[in-house]
Amino acid sequence: MIDMSSVNEISETKKALCGVCPGGCAVLAKMQDGKLADVAPLENVPFGNLCVRGKAAPEIVYSPDRIKKPLLRIGARGEGRFREASWDEALDYAAQKMLEIKKNFGPQAMASHSGRGAFEQSLGDFCNGPDMLSLKLMHSFGSPNAASDGSLCYVSYGMLAPVTTIGIPATELNPDIENSNLIVVWGANPVTDSPPFMFKRIVQAQKNGKKIIAIDPMRSDIARRANQWISLRSGTDGALALGLIHVVINEELYDQDFVEKWTVGFEELKAYVQQFTPDEVENITGVPGEQVVSLAREIANAKNAALRNYTGLEYSNSGVQTLRAVLMLWALTGNLDVPGGLNISLPPKLPIEPREIPQPELRPFGADEYPVFYEITGSAHFMEFPKAVLEELPYAVKGLLINGSSTLTSYPQPEKFIQAYEKLDLMVVIDRFMTKDALYADVVLPAATFFEIDSYQRYPGGFTRLRRKVVEPVGEAKNDILIMGELAKRLGFGDQYPQSEEEVLARAFARDPELLTRLRENEDGVQPEKKPVLYKKYEQGLLREDGMPGFPTPSGKLEFVSALLEKHGYEGLPRYVDPVEGPNGDQETFQSYPLVLNTGTRIQSTFRSQHLNIPSLVRLQDKPLVHIHNQDAEQRGIKDGDRVKVTTKRGQVYFWARVGDLVRPGSVEINQGGGSPIQVKAWREGNVNVLTDFDNRDPISGFPVFKALLCEIEPAPKS
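and the corresponding structure tokens:
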């Protein structure tokens, strides 16, 4: 590892893209004897930025915890005993076992799960499915069972809610921050985004006099910065959205021309929201009725209001419907695809050479339980993986390939997944560090960081850069996409996947080789010619494949009543369901566990469970915290900094109390990310998902209810 005390002895600097996460921030890499010694933000260039995790890049790249060589298991699953192997031996073994499983049980007996480590641009373009993550390698193999962390993250916000309402994914819905008069941040905390480009835009807009309203159960960074913070009971955002719609409709503040010409189901929606009076919304959410009215009027009269929402709204018993209701509010108030509103961005035409890999006809596990999820994503649902292994339903699953993911620190009640992993015939993990999942693997393959590869990066608006290798890979680590290519070659379909980084670039720009030439000549990147921004694209026939005006939905209109949801037996209206495990739910549970449990709020020093072994980042927060209000702490004899025991119906875990006013009375927020074997002790023993519920899910997405459960807290016993 580089001696960080001598970082002033820099021998070379390189313009680069940060390689800690796939965000592609432009940085200046400072080198010492051919190794990365320090990182600084690249100034005065598009998408230049450096977060605290990027600043720690030398520690991450040269961490003693990096997996440096392929490993083969020699101990019991979970024991963590491996021997080093050559790449050929490890890949040959993995391919041989996969082919044996295919021969004995059928190709569907192999599954995959991809996570944040699979976000790199070329891997996403060549290897991942419609949800941008699920590994198409399984489809090439003949198995439909390609899953990803889209089974519990982003897909509700990014695909299910917008597609069932507007017909397009959230990647094509972008807030026009700079031209707005009001910015509403709902279910998001942009400072923790990777990369935080949206955060910078919002902060600058506020400096320019734009008003920011933050809607969040917790006084997050954006809530503290906002001109107005609206605090509500966790899991009740759907009731608030419907209450706002109630006011907008009843006071006739909606865009009547838009509703008449471009929507279906308005009368049904109008009738449904009558029950969500301001007083009733106050009873449900805790937001004062007069504030509900004033907020509805402000959004409707802003001319125009931008919306930044994200995954914070996914994790309730009506997560998809809540997200749909928020989108409907923006459409009703005339804030959809107008200057300063929530704009529809047409997808760019990419220069990549496509290789069509047909999806197997057999349906994956989870398709029957979550049919809308399957129809939109084409993916297996990993929440149903334990059943497929342990009960062999809908059929037996015997093998699993995990790429850049830590399921045992992210899925609820991880013991259920451990039981499944222990029963597998084959488990292969590709990663940079030894996750808890990897302890159960037969084969562990070392992946390179993005500082150690050649690739490319696309940004919003079509701006493109080449990702140029900064340092040689640590040990024998390899580019993820080349690992996939090597494995595909051994399985008999290597021609479908690039076999070298040169081939990656050639295929990525096959339809525009001139662009590749320009990128090689311009290390600061290439900006395509900017075209005039078009608004109200639904009027101009720009959204539908047939070129007709309207939206790409079954009705051709924005659907307040979703035909796709009704097709699969779900309620077409954005129906609100109060948290099943909440103050208004099971009263026996509430008496024993009277605090609303919210989990998963991100902290800047980590990315999910990553980096909790990196000294400089651990120093920023060396323990997992539970945020608790002053009143609740005083009632329980808890002081700031105390070690406390948090208990739910499912288990107990120890955390450290952060007492204050960042959360509402009666609610707590607990850090997610603990539970990995290489983390420092406090985090390693603090996996919040021991407390969460495997069975309590949104019925449309299948997402676990991470933000609306119940718990109790007490001081930890004195040791």
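(Above: one complete record from the training split.) Residues 87-105 form the longest helix (19 residues).
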